[in-house]
């Protein structure tokens, strides 16, 4: 951070265990999280409760003005590739509420710059950015799309993958330089392998690791925002 300049504050909605949060902190933000679940491994202060209710309350009270930026990762089951693909074709799972639209509506009311993150699938967001683990030398592919609101950032070129994701496909095992950061069985990685591949050390809960964004993604986004807006950079 530049000397004499306060670190800007970021609101991390649907924060889970803090994959996104750690990246933003490395970029130079002070981070506050919000998640409806108990997240004892979240490494920063957080409010336990409904993320949209919390955001609405911050807007109504004016306390949203404490923040310079908002990150939102609403649950993706409504539009993720697994729900709209395999699960739907097999009649598995139930219906899921679309939280992207109400999240965007509230974010627009804040007047703050923001990003909304979603995995590949049919979630109704603009794919202003698509980031991949190979762009950052990680051991996962883990494509994630980001809708950018109230600011702009250059879209990076996608980097070709070096091979396959390790694991079984239709009864055949394939080796490769990446591990599958989802599910169990089928040649899925151990928890320590996931931690290394994702660049996450502060949680050893498989569910939290498989739901997380690699911190490298949001560190890149955060640094881009801070540099473009001259709010300061990490020390």
From TrEMBL:
<keyword id="KW-0489">Methyltransferase</keyword>
<protein>
    <submittedName>
        <fullName>DNA methylase</fullName>
    </submittedName>
</protein>
<dbReference type="GO" id="GO:0032259">
    <property type="term" value="P:methylation"/>
</dbReference>
<dbReference type="InterPro" id="IPR029063">
    <property type="entry name" value="SAM-dependent_MTases_sf"/>
</dbReference>
<dbReference type="GO" id="GO:0008168">
    <property type="term" value="F:methyltransferase activity"/>
</dbReference>
<keyword id="KW-0808">Transferase</keyword>
